[in-house]
Amino acid sequence: MDESVEIKKEAKKKVFKPDVKNIIILLSDYIFIILAYVTSLMTLCEMSNTLTNAEYLINIVMITPFYALGVIVLMYIFRLYVNNSTVDMLVERRRLLIVNFIACIIYIVIMKIFKTNYPNSFYLLGGLLQLAFTSCIRFVYRLLFDKKVVTAEETED
């Protein structure tokens, strides 16, 4: 009976609380999701002063910020902004992988609805960069600020 009460208390603790950690990660996610697709466009498309490249950039500027907000909502739904540091890193990575996969599919559908003619490699590279950036944000934050991360040198003692 006591175990079920403890489990319910732990479940209640895993909610979004607007602390500094969550705000830093949320803002970083937003910026780097947009940056992933801009970097993908800059990498794949030869930049010149043609009208086609301007159309690509306009589509990115008009659609991707709203898409990034949608990804933030998906990350919130999948509990990637919780204060509980006891969440296993493997579980967090699995959730992040699922969210990024779903978000990339949604981005492709949105871009096809707006009849943009980006190459398919743009979506693949953008999705991979999005996954890499959002994973690195959490890894770097945990490495720099989380006191529960134990290095290999400390475990040898």
Description:
The mean pLDDT is 80. The protein is elongated. The termini are far apart. Helix content is 76%, strand content 0%. The protein has helices spanning 2-13, 20-44, 51-77, 89-113, 120-145, 152-156. The chain has six helices and no strands. The chain is mainly alpha-helical and 157 residues long. Helix 2 packs antiparallel against helix 5.
Offer a quick outline of the entry.
The chain is an all-alpha fold and 157 residues long. It is built from six helices and no strands.
Question: Topology, pairings included?
Answer:
Elements: H1 2-13, H2 20-44, H3 51-77, H4 89-113, H5 120-145, H6 152-156
Principal-axes shape call: elongated
**Tally of helical segments:** 6
Average pLDDT value?
Answer: 80
Spell out the helices and strands N to C.
HHHHHH
Strand content: under 5%
Give the biggest beta sheet. Answer: none
The residue fraction in helices comes out at over 70%
Strands, count: 0
Radius of gyration, in Å, reads: 19 Å
- The assigned structural class equals mainly alpha
Measured distance between first and last alpha carbons:
39 Å
The low-pLDDT segments are none
